[in-house]
Amino acid sequence: MMLQVGQSSSEAARRFIAFVNASPTPFHAVHNASVRLESSGFTKIREADDWEKTLQPRGKYYFTRNQSSLVAFTIPPNWKPGAGLSIVATHVDSPNLRVRPISKREKIGYLQVGVETYGGGIWHSWFDRDLSLAGRVVVTQQDGTFQSKLIKVDRPLLRIPTLAIHLDKNVNDNLKFNQETEFVPIIGLVAETLNKTPKDDKKSNATAASIQGNHHPALLSVIADELSVSPEEIHDFELHLYDTQPSVLGGVNNEFMFSPRMDNQVCSFCAVDAISTYATSSDFNLLEGNVNCIALFNHEEIGSVSTSGAESSLIPSLLQRLSPTPALHSQSVSRSFLVSADMGHAIHPNFTSKHEDNHQPNMNGGIVIKTNAKQKYASDAIGSFLVKKLVERKGGKVQEFEARNDMACGSTVGPMLSKLGLRTVDVGNAMLSMHSIRETAGSHDVQNAIDLFTSLFEGFAELDKTLTLD
Predict the structure, then answer these.
(1) Selection from 411, 437, 441, 444 nearest residue 426 by Cα
(2) Does 128 have pLDDT greater than 90?
(3) Angle between helices 26-39 and 262-279 in degrees, nearest 10
(4) What are the tens digits of pLDDT across the range 250-285?
(5) pLDDT tens string 451-460
């Protein structure tokens, strides 16, 4: 029987696709999340400001850190310090390739761009793709100050070509390549640039802040044109490679999404969508209980140890600022609940043996609760029970995932955030080809995640009152 995609599921999936297509980097994801929040009445605050004294009941606030992480929260009508937080924690980074600080490379007539691998990508999937650049660039303003601006080049610029099968007869039996020497993108031909870019005769006079000698003039020219500045006004950048092929719905009934970065922009989008929709609903001014919160972290794919990662002070600082005394802080932690939302592994029809026999989540089968006895995931019976009841409120379904004993288990931001004392559960949507440049997920599951997060914001505090624990 063919599975039909409902109107709400299809609409949620299309909203996600628009978001991910506009968000090739964590910087863009945070920017686009901020735009959505502001359109729903959220006020931007800054960590440097003394905003604790200005928070108001029924207030909606958000702040960002380093353009690459975001925290948003809403204040209930009866709020006072010591109240708990209902948190959805996600991450906005994905495995990719990043331009090196000195990227200029040239070989047998080809202009190449030096890159570094980020995270645990399925790197062979990056061969023969139409790649471009996106990220942030520090430029000089007209008044002499400096600004970090976002950039997204919308046309193919780079390619990592495979070696023809005629030159590698065993490629289909044993594909191996050196990530340093055989995985370097080409951006052009030397002969084509000789008459278009000036020779770099200023390198000896370059200042410490100049990067003109570190990159091909042709590359700097593309960046300058995109930002309407001169190459000399570019002082530094963080540029990521991304696949220019747009994300799409697919499958005979549009039951799939084919897209990059679904791990973990799906959960990040759903968190933003849920809190934005909740904050503009008629129930927002009536519901009492916890502060509702979303946290979009950076650097999960490389361990979360950074100023914008889950190991940073983002959540501890928010808890402390909302409940500043030791007693109030402890009360707040004890009343809080954190849903760590990250994508999970769907059963693969060609590799069914990779899943434990009784833990085989399906795409479009509902929220996946992820459990690991070694605490690679933070879920326990309490967290799982709470999620099941929250999903039940919206008429949804849950699935269970636990890794085989003879296979390693991944991890998420959940365990590290649970160290704060927060009750934590790890959940996600099921997907295939995680960490490929093109992943596959279920289009129904976007709405399933939104429903869970909305149920958390609407009903956790009341549900928690019915549970006796310590």
Answers:
(1) 411
(2) yes
(3) 10
(4) 999 999 999 999 999 999 999 999 999 999 998 888
(5) 999 999 999 9
Contact 301, 118 (CB under 8 A): yes
**150 bridge partner residues:** 136
DSSP conformational letter for 281? S
Hunting for tokens 């960590």 — which residue is that?
47
Yes or no: say if 314 and 295 are a contact pair by the CB < 8 Å rule. yes
Encoding tokens for residue 35? 């735009």
Write the single-letter amino acid at 449. A
Residue 91: which of 345, 216, 267 has the closest Cα? Answer: 267
Q: Which residues pair with 110 in a beta bridge?
A: 107, 189
CA 352 to centroid of chain Cα atoms: 28
Cα 124 to chain centroid distance, Å, stands at 22
> What is the rounded distance in angstroms from the CA atom of residue 84 to the CA atom of residue 203?
57
For residue 114, count CB atoms less than 10 angstroms from its CB and return exposed for 0-12, middle for 13-18, buried for 19 or more. Answer: middle
- On the question of a cis peptide bond just before residue 264, with omega within 30 degrees of 0, the verdict is yes
- Residue 208: CB atoms within 10 Å: 4
Q: What pLDDT is attached to residue 198?
A: 53
- Distance between CA 465 and CA 339 in Å, rounded? 18
178 cis-preceded (ω within 30 degrees of 0)? no
Task: At 190, list the tokens.
Answer: 């030397």
Q: Pull the structure tokens for residue 258.
A: 């084919």
**Look-up of token digits 């100050």:** 145
| Residue 387 confidence (pLDDT) | 98
Exposed/middle/buried for residue 163 (C-beta within 10 Å: 0-12, 13-18, 19+): exposed
pLDDT digits (tens, 9 = 90+) for 67-106: 999 999 999 998 999 999 999 999 999 999 999 999 999 9
Residues 6+ apart with CB under 8 A from 323: 81, 82, 83, 329, 331, 332
Q: Which residues pair with 430 in a beta bridge?
A: 344
User: What is d(CA 94, CA 296) in angstroms, rounded to the nearest whole number?
Assistant: 13
Q: Could you give the 3-state DSSP secondary structure of residue 457?
A: helix
Amino acid at 114: G
Q: In whole angstroms, give the CA distance from residue 426 to residue 169.
A: 45
Contact present, 298 and 268 (Cβ < 8 Å):
no
Rg (the chain; Cα; Å): 24
